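Escalated from tier 1: guanosine-5'-diphosphate holo job.
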Amino acid sequence: LGGRISRALQQMSNATVIDEKVLTECLNEISRALFQADVQFKMVQNMQANIKKIVNLEDLAAGHNKRRIIQQAVFNELCNMLDPGKTSYTPKKGKPNIIMFVGLQGSGKTTTCTKYAYHYQKKGFKPALICADTFRAGAFDQLKQNATKAKIPFYGSYTETDPVKIAQEGLERFKRENYDLIIVDTSGRHKQETALFEEMRQVSVAMNPDLVIFVMDSSIGQAAFDQAQAFKQSVSVGAVIVTKMDGHAKGGGALSAVAATKSPVIFIGTGEHMDEFEAFETKPFVSRLLGMGDWSGFMDKIHEVVPMEQQPELLQKLTEGNFTLRIMYEQFQNILSMGPLSQVMSMIPGFSAELMPKGREKESQTKIKKFMTMMDSMTNDGNMYLFFTIIHADIVCLEML
Ligand code: GDP
Ligand code: MG
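Tier 2 regenerated the structure:
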């Protein structure tokens, strides 16, 4: 995806004459890539129209950096689309905050409500969990297990079949016991059906939640808009959490969920574990969506693996653009330990995970070790850009084999 967008921008950069047609072609290519990343067709069309209005053909023709102009415009448009123009309710200390989770079965509600509770527990809240999913066998056991691991009190029943009753009982009990973050997990069913939405409506009436969070699996693709809209029509969704961002999905469905619920994304789920949960940040999210890399994520990784005492010097060199091959070499052992190479690559601006074909990671890792040997024979003047160009070329060659 990132590759496709880069290519489209490159082609436009190379064009001698930039006219309406060249711009349209470039935007069409970017649009196709965004559609593949699960951004809704209609939204892609709107974005394209907006960009055509914003971008001035004369600016493009006048030898300015064309790629930068378009890239920036696309980037800004996508950021705007993720901003519903209002913030979400956030739990406040000193009162019981009631939060209800909704979403289809398998979207990650049960996992995410524990992550959410755990997140606020670390901030000094006293959370409690209620399992109002009486539809799926084992739902209560799953919540119980998660809650126990996080040392969070829970409420549910193996025998009661009325979710409204459980929700009410749990709410009363936890209010009485002075819990200040009372979270109710609901059922999801397999598909969007009338009975599910009626149940959500009833639980919501009984709980009167301060916030209803719509949980969305990032891999549901183009279905995101209809799904989010259906929930919004039965309960007053006020925030979105996108799960499974650690998988292959680019998360373009988040834009649909924001549009359909007119609510912001507040967190993303990045794994099955309790702490694989991050506050949502628009810019890094859009960077990854476009395959443009995520410098801040890359920096975080560096913070994780580079010894503390080396960090100030390294970060200064990075920001000055003085990140030489020598420094790269010195850091390489660390970088190899950052995790899957494709993940690291996708965080570097200009590179995308696709550059590192799946199943070739080991091979590529071996290659990089070979590059280190090559680097040994280079002078101190080599720079990181050159180095990555070599890796890039090599991976492209791998692809062609
Ligand atoms: P629910 O039916 O909506 O309650 O969904 P669950 O919480 O039971 O989650 C369904 C599956 O998705 C489980 O196997 C979870 O471990 C998994 N899951 C949830 N969130 C994430 C995530 O952010 N990343 C990954 N990789 N898996 C997740
Ligand atoms: Mg569940």
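The beta strands are 97-102, 127-132, 154-155, 181-186, 211-217, 237-243, 265-269, 277-279.
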